[in-house]
Amino acid sequence: MQFIIQRDRLVQSVQEVMKAVTSRTTIPILTGVKITVKTEGVTLTGSDSDISIESFIPVEEDGNEIVEIKETGSIVLNARFFSEIVKKLPMDAVEIEVQNNLQTIIRSGKAEFNLNGLDAEEYPHLPLIEEENILRLPADLLKTLVRQTVFAVSTSETRPILTGVNIKVENDELTCIATDSHRLAMRKARLENEVNGTYNVVIPGKSLNELSKILDDTNEPIEIVITENQVLFRAKNLLFFSRLLEGNYPDTSRLIPTDSKTNITVHVKEFLQAIDRASLLAREGRNNVVKLSTLEGGVIEISSNSPEIGKVIEEVTAESIEGEELKISFSAKFVMDALKALEGTDIKINFTGAMRPFVIRSLHDDTMLQLILPVRTY
Amino acid sequence: MQFIIQRDRLVQSVQEVMKAVTSRTTIPILTGVKITVKTEGVTLTGSDSDISIESFIPVEEDGNEIVEIKETGSIVLNARFFSEIVKKLPMDAVEIEVQNNLQTIIRSGKAEFNLNGLDAEEYPHLPLIEEENILRLPADLLKTLVRQTVFAVSTSETRPILTGVNIKVENDELTCIATDSHRLAMRKARLENEVNGTYNVVIPGKSLNELSKILDDTNEPIEIVITENQVLFRAKNLLFFSRLLEGNYPDTSRLIPTDSKTNITVHVKEFLQAIDRASLLAREGRNNVVKLSTLEGGVIEISSNSPEIGKVIEEVTAESIEGEELKISFSAKFVMDALKALEGTDIKINFTGAMRPFVIRSLHDDTMLQLILPVRTY
């Protein structure tokens, strides 16, 4: 195996596949990056057995030569050292050559590294995915879906299924749901293509976070292929595999209240900042809890009290307050997470009494919803 | 106590004094910031008993009103909460008022905080410093002196005196020396004023690091007052006190070799980058050690070998190599620290054999020196 490659392009691909590599693996070869050289180009692979990433660098792109292949072949190199080395190479061109006994030379300018490689035959094969149905979404929309839901997954392993995001596909519409049983985030989006049949799977939150970091903020289409125990996201020159979580995701539809008793419309920014300030003193007290009360004249009062440190009180003028008077306490963190995930400048909040979950939505957008359980303080 | 103040100016002063406040103190009142209001302005004080910082905000500056004093007085407020609160206040003006029982109101726009204060009478007094001799240095030069030496202090408490920087003053010249007994950094600077007598004190490295963070990169003069067990740095509106370390600093002058057997002149950048690359593989091996060998034709070879991972070799063309042939091993970290501290584009290195300390200097600047002990590998 021998080839010459543009350093920056190599660095970019190495950084992509490094997202799947962990040093805390019990399978030694997975601490490596697999490099496969064929006449079409160079493929890098990284995997931690939950997530696998393949990044392809074509020989030529847009008429520019990126790789010069001298001999095809493959090798596995220690991922951490390889990635640090390529980042610090002195020149724009890098030559990589496998010699006898898996010894691999990395040459750039007057610097020459000699790394002990591992046999690529021993690297696990990535899942073969049969492509019956392909779902299509623009990359930036997919990133938004992840951003607006994944923060609400559970971080506790007591119910492993809740550490994932529930993805449902029905009637060409994709729904993402995440809940840690104290709050729930839901976002829907229309697919770009028609899809036969329905899907209902759970993708680990960690996988979606890593996927989000790799995808560009463009409207380039991402192809999604869902199988029984794997999902594949395919972008240009990039394959991202994740295992699915086993088990049934709880039916969350009946959690969302259909009626309401108090409805508030308010500017996001002022409301968010007032809660942020109130939470400064709440942090040390009862689990980050702030209190919201409706006052006369369309005013919301946000307050918090932490006997040892002090108290804070702030009034926010709402756009409108309808229905019953309300005093309710909630986790400042959960409400701030939800408000940051919403788009637009105004939101509506529907309450059904101080002990029932409440729902936050953007004023003019029904594709997403944030549900939060209040905290009992009275 | 009651006053109205510009928020940004308050935030800046709070951040300055926070550098001296630690939550890990055994003296509860030192977790607070002391606020003292007099007719001239507002003084904030923070202290961890090693370092004390006083920041003064005048009532008026350059014709602009910064503070409106309504009632003089003083209070101590929890530093962490106070600093987070002022950063997040909604409006440009902040009113602070002490009511009964040390209850302190912080008001900005519609937000109102009520903090439990502590009695300012219980806050320890800062040292009274008799100003016999004042040393003067521009702020940017003082920061450079610290930057070029403080990294070499010892991080181990086995010889506490080596955790400080030795400051000597003689003949209107100030010398800073730091050593951890494996390397030594020295920098001299001429004082702006004439000084009677000599000084020889040791300032904790931590104090100098914090001082450096507070000082601006300007040529504004800093006044330094040294007493038996304290040093005071005074800038405009800022007092920075540090205790001195007790004990005698070792005499380092005899460590610096006066003769040399091999002299190398080389571009800093290329040399530094080659060592950086070689250290990538050294990290896992024998304590970050790289090897330097002189070759024919004015070439330096930098190499490193880590049997389990691989090896690296790189040639750097020197400006000149004079004297005996040399093979020497050293800590890549120590040499990189030293090279980063030097100014200018070219350096000279004087070696006195593979087992003796070597000295790195800027080619055209004799005010500073970096000395490094080699590592025995043969």
From TrEMBL, chains A, B:
The record's listing under InterPro entries reads:
DNA_clamp_sf, DNA_polIII_beta, DNA_polIII_beta_C, DNA_polIII_beta_cen, DNA_polIII_beta_N
Q: Name one GO molecular function term.
A: DNA-directed DNA polymerase activity
Q: In this protein, which residues make up the domain named DNA polymerase III beta sliding clamp central? A: 137-251
**Biological process GO annotation list?**
DNA strand elongation involved in DNA replication
The keyword Cell cycle appears for this protein: no
Q: Where in the cell is it found?
A: Cytoplasm
Q: Which domain of life is it from?
A: Bacteria
Mind telling me which GO cellular component terms the entry cites? cytoplasm; DNA polymerase III complex
Gene3D superfamilies per the UniProt record, alphabetical: 3.70.10.10, DNA Polymerase III, subunit A, domain 2
- Residue span(s) of domain DNA polymerase III beta sliding clamp N-terminal: 1-127
Where this protein primarily resides, as one coarse class?
Answer: cytoplasm
Q: Where is the DNA polymerase III beta sliding clamp C-terminal domain?
A: 254-376
Which key words are in the record?
Answer: Cytoplasm, DNA replication, DNA-binding, DNA-directed DNA polymerase, Nucleotidyltransferase, Transferase
Family membership, please give it: Belongs to the beta sliding clamp family.
Function text: Confers DNA tethering and processivity to DNA polymerases and other proteins. Acts as a clamp, forming a ring around DNA (a reaction catalyzed by the clamp-loading complex) which diffuses in an ATP-independent manner freely and bidirectionally along dsDNA. Initially characterized for its ability to contact the catalytic subunit of DNA polymerase III (Pol III), a complex, multichain enzyme responsible for most of the replicative synthesis in bacteria; Pol III exhibits 3'-5' exonuclease proofreading activity.
On subunit structure and binding partners, the annotation says: Forms a ring-shaped head-to-tail homodimer around DNA.
- Protein known as: Beta sliding clamp
